[in-house]
Write a structure and sequence with these properties.
CATH superfamily of the largest domain: Band 7 domain
CATH class of the largest domain: Alpha Beta
Number of domains: 2
Distance between the termini: 116 Å
CATH architecture of the largest domain: 2-Layer Sandwich
Number of helices: 5
Structural class: alpha+beta
Radius of gyration: 35 Å
Number of strands: 3
Order of helices and strands: HEEHHHHE
């Protein structure tokens, strides 16, 4: 039986070509893997190799405050219960007998934060605070002043909540 020219198989050199192709493919794969490994190593080292842990968020009660208001708003006293939302990176261990985390930082600075609340509220009249806009302005002022006191702790106040707001 006679084969047609386009169906002929030449066995001479075809085996060498297949072996050379396999070696070439293997070399390409090896260089690609080395390049990927080098890129990954560079990226890991350039970022310091550290992954930044996400900030913690907690909502904590600060307390109930009864203060004398500045004269001129029709009411003399204000009773307000305040809660805080705080964010940041706080130490896990607060030491012997102390709370850790964000709650520990807030507890450690509670006197300072309470002073901010009392000094801010006593400088206001009820007229300045009784509207929704007035309460929002008060929240913003309290947050700014509290964050000023907490700036070296790695913790910041992101929300101030009024759980109770009663004037007499």
């Amino acid at each position: 039986m006679h084969k047609r020219p386009w169906q002929r198989r030449e066995s001479v050199g075809s085996r060498d070509m297949t072996g050379a192709s396999k070696i070439l493919v293997i070399l390409i794969v090896v260089f690609a893997l080395l390049g990927a490994a080098a890129t990954g190593g560079y990226l890991a080292l350039s970022s310091g190799g550290k992954k930044e842990k996400p900030e913690e968020v907690e909502r904590l009660p600060l307390g109930t405050f009864v203060v004398n208001l500045r004269p001129g708003g029709g009411f003399n006293y204000l009773k307000v219960t305040i809660g805080l939302e705080v964010r940041g990176h706080a130490p896990k261990n607060g030491g012997e007998g102390k709370k850790g985390g964000l709650a520990g930082v807030v507890e450690e600075h509670k006197l300072e934060l309470s002073d901010v609340v009392v000094s801010t509220l006593t400088g206001k009249t009820f007229t300045e605070m009784h509207t929704p806009e007035g309460k929002q302005q008060l929240r913003s002022e309290l947050m700014a002043r509290m964050n000023q006191r907490l700036k070296m702790t790695g913790v910041r106040v992101t929300q101030v909540f009024f759980a109770e707001f009663v004037a007499q």
